[in-house]
Specification:
The complex is a heterodimer. Chain A contains eleven helices and twelve strands. By secondary structure, chain A is of the alpha/beta class. In chain A, strand 11 and strand 12 form a beta hairpin. The longest helix of chain A has 18 residues. Chain B has a single domain, classed as MetI-like (MetI-like fold, Orthogonal Bundle), CATH 1.10.3720. By secondary structure, chain B is an all-alpha fold. The N terminus of chain B is likely disordered. In chain B, 68% of the residues lie in helices and 0% in strands. Chain B starts with 22 loop residues before the first helix and ends in a 7-residue tail after the last helix. Classes of the chains: A alpha/beta, B mainly alpha. At the A-B interface, helix 2, helix 3, helix 6 and helix 7 of A face helix 8 and helix 9 of B.
């Protein structure tokens, strides 16, 4: 299968009163046709900005795509005119937003919102667009789509609205859908339904998906490949299975350990990642994860680790000590000793939480 | 291939069968809660009926002179008396409501609509566009309504269409200001970003996605401007800068009456004056109640 989307050395910056924020700082990754790729990381690591940069919807003039390429089906989206880009949005790349409560327009009927894109991008006539809208609503699991078309968003629950948003994203049969935290705002039970739906539809229609999330559970079950982002950079990339079995970056390891697991003793303590994400206006030299890292060595402070292939694994990691991270890792819970006491450089002690009470 | 889950919506159905109330029920509810507003609305409606049916309702031709009955007192023949040319005052008030409604509705609809488009557009684009548009609007706002209207009329000359234009112009920046502040909040809603991500043009997003969301302030402005426009038209006509004789207009009737006949034939001034007051009062009453009814913070449900 060919490469559908290739993000190359993308740099997106925001100028704020406290300096230039390097929100996306030279990331590269691919999505193959029909593949589901996850972009994982904590809040503020640049996941959403990456998605907005692909769509060229970064809020201007504060935000700016400084350099890089976003090659989609052989064309660099960053070189397109605004008019050409408009034809890519919605038609070639669909987008699913986080908040289903607010990503539908409250004063327009669901039918109108579904048909509008069809009429504009595919030049469908109203009756054809309506028929397609009925088909779409049926596809995302509504039992009486025709009646639903005349209703307004407030007449639907959160999960149902997210189904409508998914139907809208898929309306023009785009080869790629970007989903920015598609389930974060939903109840846990509904989350699973929505993710199952997305997975099923992506298989059935051959749609490639980029799922942006901070939820590693989502990644494990629904993604083929995972990119872990930290402070605007990709720090590790692997297949989902490989990443769980054999994380090779201390940050990934930390993320996995801070997730409660059903196969652990109920009284086991979660291990939080100590410290805070760095200030993106003043990134430290060397590795930006260094202040919070249990594996740090002296040259981490001066030499920035490149993304490199890890010898005994089929994935890449941006850590000088990737081998040591791997060998210490007999299973995500019995790893290295707890991080040494942090120096005065760390901002705050991390929260430690007890789980399973 | 895993099958797509079906029929979940039946479980998660929330308030779907909340029937949309008929407009008659809505009107009844409004009258019960806000009787004053309903009275205002009724007078507005009456005014509209009179304006539309003027040629049927008026007992005389409003421009027909009768030199046998000049300055006649109110009587069975002329209920509200006649003016200096023997024209029937009631007929002129009836026809005058046609002028008032035409000017009032045209100005309010034009002013509020153009202002809303400018305000929403300004909020949507933000940044430099917003800054420039707002400064231009500020310049217009620096002048009182009547002064700006006078300026436009003195440039364009009198006549009903020029009057409409003259009254619309100063209303635009006021409407723009109100709609912009509502639109600023809407601009930040994810559905606007979603519309961008769906590949819609700016104009479509402004007109089809954002404008319907400022409908409540728009309607309030509309009713508020109706009263103001009627008053302004009367003022301009009174000053001789509005509608020209012999067209029937309330302000024009006052102009003729107040100067010479205030003592000898007071009915010439009192009745058109009452018509203006009643119309403006009714519009304001209705507008205020509508605002209260549409403002979610004041809504008691």
């Amino acid at each position: 299968m060919g490469v559908l989307l290739s993000v190359q050395s993308l740099v997106t910056q925001f100028s704020t009163s406290s300096g230039i924020v390097r929100a996306v700082d030279g990331v590269s990754w691919d999505v193959d046709e029909g593949e589901t790729v996850a972009l994982v990381g904590e809040s503020g690591c640049g996941k959403s900005v990456t998605a907005l940069s692909i769509m060229r919807l970064v809020a201007q003039p504060a935000g700016r795509i400084v350099s890089g390429h976003v090659v989609f089906k052989g064309r660099d989206l960053l070189t397109l005119s605004e008019e050409e880009m408009r034809r890519v949005r919605g038609r070639e790349i669909g987008m699913i937003f986080q908040e289903p409560m607010t990503s539908l327009n409250p004063v327009l009927t669901v039918g109108r919102q579904l048909t509008e894109g069809l009429e504009i991008h595919l030049a469908m006539r109203q009756t054809d667009a309506r028929a397609r809208a009925v088909e779409l609503l049926g596809m995302v699991g509504f039992s009486d789509p025709a009646r639903r078309l005349t209703q307004y968003p407030h007449q639907f629950s959160g999960g149902m609205r997210q189904r409508i948003v998914i139907a809208m994203a898929l309306a023009c049969n785009p080869p790629l859908v970007l989903a920015d935290e598609p389930t974060t705002a939903l109840d846990v039970t509904i989350q699973a339904q929505i993710l199952e739906l997305m997975k099923a539809l992506s298989r059935r229609l051959g749609v490639a998906m980029l799922i942006i999330t901070h939820n590693l559970g989502v990644v494990a079950r629904y993604a083929d490949r995972v990119n872990v982002m930290y402070a605007g950079r990709i720090v590790e990339r692997a297949s989902a299975r490989e990443l769980y079995r054999n994380p090779r970056h201390p940050y990934t390891l930390g993320l996995l350990r801070s997730v409660p697991r059903l196969d652990e003793p109920r009284r086991a303590r979660l291990q939080p990642i100590e410290g805070q994400p760095p200030d993106l206006t003043r990134l430290p030299t060397g590795c930006s994860f260094r202040p919070r890292c249990a594996f740090r060595v002296e040259y981490c402070a001066t030499e920035e680790p490149p993304l490199r292939e890890v010898p005994d694994a089929t994935h890449v990691s941006a850590c000088w000590e990737a081998e040591r991270v791997g060998s210490s890792n007999g299973g995500p819970r019995n790893g290295p000793p707890s991080p040494p006491a942090l120096g005065s450089t760390s901002a705050q002690p991390g929260r430690s939480s007890r789980h399973g009470e | 291939m895993s099958s797509v889950p079906r029929r979940i919506d039946d479980v998660a159905e929330l308030g779907t069968d909340e029937a949309r109330r008929s407009w008659l029920a809505t009107v009844w509810e409004f009258s019960r809660r806000r009787p004053l507003g309903a009275i205002g609305g009724a007078i507005v409606l009456l005014n509209l009926i009179v304006a539309v049916g003027a040629n049927v309702l008026a007992p005389y031709d409003p421009v027909a002179t009768d030199y046998g009955a000049m300055l006649a007192r109110p009587s069975a023949a002329h209920w509200l008396g006649t003016d200096a040319y023997g024209r029937d005052v009631l007929s002129r008030i009836v026809y005058g409501s046609r002028t008032a409604m035409l000017v009032g509705f045209s100005c309010a609809v034009l002013g509020a609509t153009i202002g809303a488009v400018i305000g929403v557009g300004s909020a949507y684009f933000g940044g430099r566009v917003d800054l420039i548009v707002q400064r231009v609007m500020d310049i217009f706002l620096a002048f009182p309504l009547i002064i700006l209207a006078l300026a436009v009329v003195s440039i364009l000359g009198t006549g009903i269409w020029n009057v409409i234009l003259a009254i619309t112009v100063p209303m635009i920046p006021r409407a723009a200001l109100v709609s912009r502040s509502s639109a600023l909040a809407i601009r930040e809603m994810p559905y606007v970003d979603a519309a961008r991500a769906a590949g819609f043009r700016h104009v479509r997003i402004i007109l089809r996605h954002m404008l319907p969301n400022v409908m409540a302030p728009y309607l309030i402005m509309l009713t508020a401007y109706l009263g103001q426009a009627i008053l302004l038209e009367a003022s301009l006509s009174f000053l001789g800068l509005g509608v020209a004789e012999p067209t029937a207009a309330w302000g024009l009737m006052l102009r003729g009456a107040a100067v010479q006949f205030a003592e000898s034939a007071p009915w010439m001034a009192i009745f058109p004056g009452l018509a203006i007051s009643l119309a403006v009062f009714a519009f304001n009453l209705f507008g205020d109640s509508l605002r209260d009814a549409l403002d979610p913070r004041l809504r008691t449900q």
